[in-house]
Amino acid sequence: xxxxxxxxxxxxxxxxxxxxxxxxxxxxxxxxxxxxxxxxxxxxxxxxxxxxxxxxxxxxxxxxxxxxxxxxxxxxxxxxxxxxxxxxxxxxxxxxxxxxxxxxxxxxxxxxxxxxxxxxxxxxxxxxxxxxxxxxxxxxx
Length: 141
Fold this sequence. Notes:
By secondary structure, the protein is α/β, with parallel strands linked by helices. The chain has one domain (16-139): Rossmann fold. Helix content is 34%, strand content 20%. The chain contains seven helices and five strands. Strands 1, 2, 3, 4 and 5 form a five-stranded mixed beta sheet that branches. The protein is globular and about 40 Å long. 25% of the residues are buried.
């Protein structure tokens, strides 16, 4: 268990195009199955963010509900061409729904702990962390 996590499982959101790839192997090594809930975004069909807020699909709503039920959240993504996977980008973009459409759910995220795990063949792991650096300002995690 992570410090300060009184018995609640860690939510790991896997955003890889390969469900059993290097990112998943790292997740399995770092977070024991007995203390984590794993969501493989590749198994969920949710649409991308839309500026008209017309994307009210149930798949993302279910993911958001699970997200707010955990105190510790890990976003796990490979780095492709200096950025996160397209699946993880789409998920992070849709978090905007929680500050525009589902504001009460977004407010419920306040105080959560958010971590990013990224894998890459490039030892420098360039600029992928920039995608997440301002996330905390928008949803207080």
